[in-house]
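Sequence only, no structure available. Ideas?
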Amino acid sequence: MLTQLFGALFGTRSQSTFQFRPRWKEELVVTGPGGVFVLGLPMGVYSACLPTQEVWINTAPEWAKDLWPVLEAELAEWCKNNKAKLHIDETAFVFIVE
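Reply:
I predicted one. Tokens follow.
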């Protein structure tokens, strides 16, 4: 966990903790070490929506609650590579799939 966090913050991780896959209905499927969840991916202005860290603690899958800093860093990189904006907002949803 600390290695993942350190790597996400300082760019030294060898592999990603999360994988991101857009799908229809403006959803971004996120696969992590403990399961799968979905974030919003509006297409009007191509952007990924992540809850604030405070909201995340109450809405995230149990296995991912401590990984918000890692998720935020990796999602920011994914957005940059995919020419999408990243919105961190208290109204963003998390739909737990697995």
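The chain is about 30% helix and 30% strand.
Hope that gets you unstuck.
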